[in-house]
Amino acid sequence: MDKVVLAFSGGLDTSVCIKLLEEKYDMEVITACVDVGQPRHEIERPARVARELGNYRHHTIDAREEFASDYIFPAIKANAVYEGYPLSTALARPLIAKKIVEVAEEEGASAIAHGCTGKGNDQFRFEAVIRSTTDLDVIAPIRDLNLTRTEEMEYARSCGIPLPSDKLYSIDENLWGRAIEGDVLEDPAVEPPEDAFEWTKPVDETPEEPETVEIQFSGGVPVAINREELKPVEIVERANEIAGTHGIGRVDIMEDRIIGMKSREVYETPGACLLIEAHRGLEQLTLTRSELRFAEIISSTYAELVYNGLWHDPLREDLDMAINHMQRRVTGTVKVKLHRGNMRITGRSSPYSLYSEEIVSFEDKTLDQREMAGMVKNYALQAAIYRKVCRKEN
Ligand code: ARG
């Protein structure tokens, strides 16, 4: 029998996939779960469910360090944000796919399966990586059979898969953020109820006193918080805690999915919001005006590539090279003041600062003001000519 490795969360969709892969595809199923910083129980659940559903071989792969260093940190350098969304789910998908491919190769499997439906973004993201790195078959049982949620439930009942107990939201959580979909959130006119949030405090429960956090960057990535040097995973965790406590990082947007469908998306990304804000602040001090303008273009292209699942497109590597070269000087310290759901940069310093207090000062004479006259005189030359032409016409 051919083997298939299934990306397995232990939830309804992927549990149904196990049984479908056996029944309709006649395959031997091996399950795998990649740890990208989801809560403990989401790592333990698939292992347990795989056992309970029939003692399937199950792999747990810890990819947290790799996620932080090779995916989150490049996204910080790029200030990667798509329509207001710091790309938590989107960034993790290519890494999850990569790890599942490794398991499939190790197991000698002939195919990889995932539980994505035909409506979302993740089908694109998984398959783009799988197909660009292997010749393995890809099977998406839920999409293949065009199953609705109700049909899935019926099928699950018929083969003894335990049904979820009145689960409200569909949540995808990793180190970089928490995405909340479904239930009342599907109506974009309805305010997300407080119970949708876990990482961020509602403003009225945040500390009365403001807190100033000091973030140190080296080469465009954060290396210490409040002077404590931390590993990438710890930096992100610490940033999530600090910003979440002050109610920072709630994102509520209308998002344009890859297939064009609009969807209302709610996120909690406190650490991402804080670290990217601080990073931008340091860039303002260390990059030239033209670099900053170009970085903005790179940033939106980068975010779109990540959102669209094109992590393996050579353009992403090209952009990383340009970004890395630019980011060499994004080294220094940023102070951010957090209070009642707001944050504001209150201090920036860098050995590569392009700011000169001397030149900007009113007392200084290094810049001879008289030399500016010629530069200023013809500055708006085209506008002056245009206005003259207009005057003649009237
Ligand atoms: N819309 C987001 C994305 O495509 C997040 C989807 C998260 N999934 C979920 N079940 N909440 O990246």
From TrEMBL:
This is Argininosuccinate synthase. Pathway: Amino-acid biosynthesis; L-arginine biosynthesis; L-arginine from L-ornithine and carbamoyl phosphate: step 2/3. L-citrulline binds at residues 85, 121, 125, 170, 255, 267. Homotetramer. The keyword Transmembrane helix does not apply. It comes from the Archaea. Residues 169-386 form the Arginosuccinate synthase C-terminal domain. Belongs to the argininosuccinate synthase family. Type 1 subfamily. Residues 3-162 form the Arginosuccinate synthase-like N-terminal domain. It comes from Methanothermobacter wolfeii. InterPro entries: Arginosuc_syn_C (IPR048268), Arginosuc_syn_N (IPR048267), Arginosuc_synth (IPR001518), Arginosuc_synth_CS (IPR018223), Arginosuc_synth_type_1_subfam (IPR023434), AS_cat/multimer_dom_body (IPR024074), Rossmann-like_a/b/a_fold (IPR014729). The gene is argG. The lineage of its organism: Archaea, Methanobacteriati, Methanobacteriota, Methanomada group, Methanobacteria. It catalyses: L-citrulline + L-aspartate + ATP = 2-(N(omega)-L-arginino)succinate + AMP + diphosphate + H(+). One of its GO terms (molecular function) is argininosuccinate synthase activity. Its EC number is 6.3.4.5.
